[in-house]
Amino acid sequence: xxxxxxxxxxxxxxxxxxxxxxxxxxxxxxxxxxxxxxxxxxxxxxxxxxxxxxxxxxxxxxxxxxxxxxxxxxxxxxxxxxxxxxxxxxxxxxxxxxxxxxxxxxxxxxxxxxxxxxxxxxxxxxxxxxxxxxxxxxxxxxxxxxxxxxxxxxxxxxxxxxxxxxxxxxxxxxxxxxxxxxx
Length: 183
What we know:
The chain is mainly alpha-helical and 183 residues long. Among the domains are: 7-49; 120-171, no CATH class. 30% of the residues lie in helices and 4% in strands. The protein has 6 helices and 3 strands; from the N terminus they run ααααβββαα. Strand 2 and strand 3 form a beta hairpin. Helix 2 (23-32) crosses helix 3 (39-49). The radius of gyration is 41 Å and the shape is flat. It starts with 6 loop residues before the first helix and ends in a 12-residue tail after the last helix.
């Protein structure tokens, strides 16, 4: 990374900036001359040293073809006298809304099957299964129905969390603390 600007670089920047060249064009010119400077570096030094750009006259706008004037037609209502509306006829009485159908009685969902004694394989896990690992090689999971707000069933939560952690979980404050395994 270069930190110092040479007098030659500064002179090129001052001259090209005054001529109206962009920062990117100046940086490319410096790069062709062997100085590796970025557009941002060029614009930064221009700003810090206060170089002034001569007013470059703005390009003359292209002539625009005149828009033909549109003839405005008088509305028909202006020629004729305004019409009066006929009075509304009495509408027939409204029909009462249809009676709401009786709500369907929904039976309780079928009870979920208990997990097998050896646990549930990873590929067989459902969204409602407890995620506590009960066997390794191959991994087997508890598989009982999860307790609300946790990934484990209530029995696994009682084995893993302290009583204070269980209370916090029930109240919904901080996450439960894990019990350290006995050595």
